[in-house]
Amino acid sequence: MKTMATTVTERGQVSIPATVRKRLNLTPGQRVTWEPISDHECRMKVAPESPILGAKAMLGYAAKFRRVRRTSEWMDEIRQGEIE
User: How far is CA 11 from CA 26, 65, 77, in A?
Assistant: First the structure.
C-alpha cells in the first residue's frame, strides 16, 4: 500500500483515508487505539470489540419487539379527540 498523508485539524482530529478504512473494514463508531512507537511514529490498531455488560446491554433490547411508527402516525394518535 502506498503512503498517504492527512492533516490534523485544530481539534486534533485526523481522517483515515478511505482505502485504509476499507482494507481494515472500519465502520462509523468503531474504536481504534494509538500507540506511540518513537518521537515521529505511531501505530494505529483496530480495538477489539468488547461485549457490553450490565444494564447497558439491555439498551435497545425492547426496540426489537415494538413496531416503528412514523412521526405523522404519532401526531394522528395524539390529536385524536381534539376535533370532536
Answer: 22, 41, 45
Please count the residues of the chain.
84
According to DSSP H, which parts of 25-82 are helical? 71-79
pTM attached to this predicted model: 0.53
Q: In the chain, where does DSSP find H-type helix?
A: 18-24, 71-79
Q: Is the pLDDT of residue 84 over 60?
A: no
The predicted-structure confidence for 31-52, as pLDDT tens digits, reads as follows 899 999 999 999 999 988 877 7
Domains of the chain and any CATH numbers: 18-79 (2.10.260)
Mapped onto helix, strand or coil, the DSSP state of residue 36 is: strand
| Residue tagged 435497545 (cell numbers) | 60
